[in-house]
Design a protein that fits this description.
This protein is mainly beta. The chain contains no helices and 7 strands.
Length: about 110
């Protein structure tokens, strides 16, 4: 399990009601595919983030299923139409069931 996941979220600095904004996320994670061998020849166990979700004021707005071919430190971006101020709630789920969560406020100006 990755024990030091650090999600980063980036939004535009100024958002108006009705804007379509790009939400950018990056999380630090090794994303071990389960196909690589260590120095002794043993397989390194699979350990990936297999799901990422985002809710906007409690409503699901984005979901991605990730596979072993995704690179380490996955970067995911998506577009969102902003209809009100509120909060984006993110969740990244690891193979072992660990869920890393982050929140990002959206302020409509």
């Amino acid at each position: 399990m990755a024990t030091d996941l650090k999600p980063r979220i980036r939004l535009p600095s100024q958002i108006k009601m009705g804007d379509v904004v790009e939400v950018k996320t990056l999380v630090t994670h090794d994303m071990e595919s389960g196909h690589r061998r260590d120095a002794s020849g043993a397989l390194v166990p699979r350990r990936i983030i297999n799901k990422m979700t985002c809710a906007y004021n409690g409503r699901p707005v984005f979901e991605a299923t990730l596979e072993p071919a995704v690179a380490a430190n996955p970067y995911i971006a998506f577009f969102l139409k902003v209809t009100e101020s509120g909060t984006l709630d993110f969740a990244w789920t690891d193979d072992d069931g660990t869920v890393t969560r982050a929140k990002q406020a959206i302020k409509v100006g």
